[in-house]
Amino acid sequence: MAIKIIDAKEALGEDGSSVFLRNSSQGYEEKEKDVAAIVNDVKERGDKALFEYESKFDGVSLNPTNIRVTEDEIKKAYEAVDDELIAIMRRSLENIRSYHQKQLRQSFFTEPKEGVILGQRITPMEKVGVYVPGGKAAYPSSVLMNIAPAKVAGVERIIMCSPPDKEGNIYPVTLVAACEAGADEIYKAGGAQAIAAMAYGTDSVPKVDKIAGPGNVYVALAKRMVYGQVSIDSVAGPSEICVMADETADASFVAADLLSQAEHDEMASAVLVTTSHTLAEDVSKMTDKYMERLERAPIMQESLKNHGAAVICKNMAEAARVVNAIAPEHLEIVTANPFEDMTRIKNAGAIFLGAYSSEPLGDYYAGPDHVLPTNGTAKFFSPLSVDDFIKKSSIISYSKEALFEAKDDIISFANAEGLTAHANSIKVRFEKE
Known about the structure:
Layout: E1 5-7, H1 8-11, H2 29-45, H3 47-58, H4 71-80, H5 83-101, E2 108-113, E3 116-124, E4 127-131, H6 140-153, E5 157-162, H7 172-181, E6 185-188, H8 191-200, E7 210-212, H9 217-226, E8 231-232, E9 240-245, H10 251-262, E10 269-274, H11 277-291, H12 297-307, E11 308-312, H13 316-326, E12 330-334, H14 338-342, E13 350-353, H15 359-364, E14 390-398, H16 400-416, H17 420-427
Helix pairs in contact: 2-3, 2-8, 2-9, 3-8, 4-7, 5-6, 5-7, 6-7, 8-9, 10-11, 16-17
C-alpha cells in the first residue's frame, strides 16, 4: 500500500502536537553560511557581486544594460505563449482581483468624546519585490497570486526578479503573467543574490520595502536573513494537503487530491484524516493505481512514504483535533456536512469544502491567494492578502480641554514607570494655568 494507516494516537505526540511537522532547519547550517556570504557580498559590492553570482549560478553574462527585461523581450514572450493560455490567465486574474478587492480596508476616524479624534490611516507600500523561481519549470499561477494582491492594495511600484537561462531569457509565460498582473519592472536575477539585491538595492536593481514569492532553500534562507531590512511574506516550506473525510467521501477523488500535492517534491506532505477505515484502505489502493500512469510517480511515492499517512479517528471531533494539530497549508473537508465540520477547525491556511472543491481549484482559479502558511504555521500565520502590502498609521488628536481632563492619569502613569520626562511633557502644557 502506498499510504500507511495509523490511528489518532500515533498521529499526535505526547504534548498533542502533530508528528507530521518537519524540522525545517535541519541540515541548513552549511547552506546558511553560503547564503550569508552571498547576501553580504551583494550588500557590500552591489551590481558587481550580483553579476558575478549570476555568471556562476545561472551561467549568464549580465550587466547594467541587459539585466532589465525590455519591451521587445515582453513582446516576443507574448508571441511565444499560446493565446488560449493567456485567456485562461486573464480569467484567473479576474477572479483573484475580485476576491482581493473585498479585502480592502478603509481609513477611519472616530470621536469618542468631545475634543478627542482617533483614527487609523491606511497607505500602501511604495515598492514591493516579487521573486519568481526559474529552474526546471515555470509557475505563472504564483506570479499572479503574488502580484495581484499588491496591485489591488495600491502598491506604486512592483519589481520582479526571476533567474534567466544561459541565453539571458526568462520563461515567456512568466513574463506574460507578470505583465498581465501588473509588474512595473522585471529583472533577470535569481537565487540569494536576487533577494539581497532587492533588500539592499544596487545600481541596477531598486531597493524594495517588502519581498514576496516562493523559491528554493537558498531563496528562503536569504529572505529570512534580510528580514528587518525589508519585510517578507514568509519563509515557506514544502507543500501540504490534509483531507478530512468520512465514509461518504469518494476514494478516487481523495486519492487524486492527495497526489496533487505529493507531486510537488519528496518533502511534500499528504495526509488523510478519516473516521472510515474502509475509505483509508480504498484511498491507499487508488493512489497506487493513479501512480501507475502519472508522470511524477517516483516523487509522489517518496512523499507518501516519508510524509504521508491515513489517520483513523473515532469521530469527527477527534478528526478535527488531529487536523488542528497539523495546521495544514491546504485542508479539504469531504464529509456529509462539510460546513458544519468546518466550525471545528481552528488552524488551516485554506479550507476547501465539498467533493468538488479540490485543492487545484485554489492553486489556479478560484480567487483566494494560494500563498499559504506551511509546516504548522497556520496556527499563527494567514494567507497572503492585501493586508500584507499596506501600512497602518494610528491617528491621535486631543484638544487642550480633552488633555486637561486626562493629564493627571497620564502623569501618574509616567511617574509610576519612572519616566519623569514623559510626565513633564504633559505638565508643561498647563503650568501657566
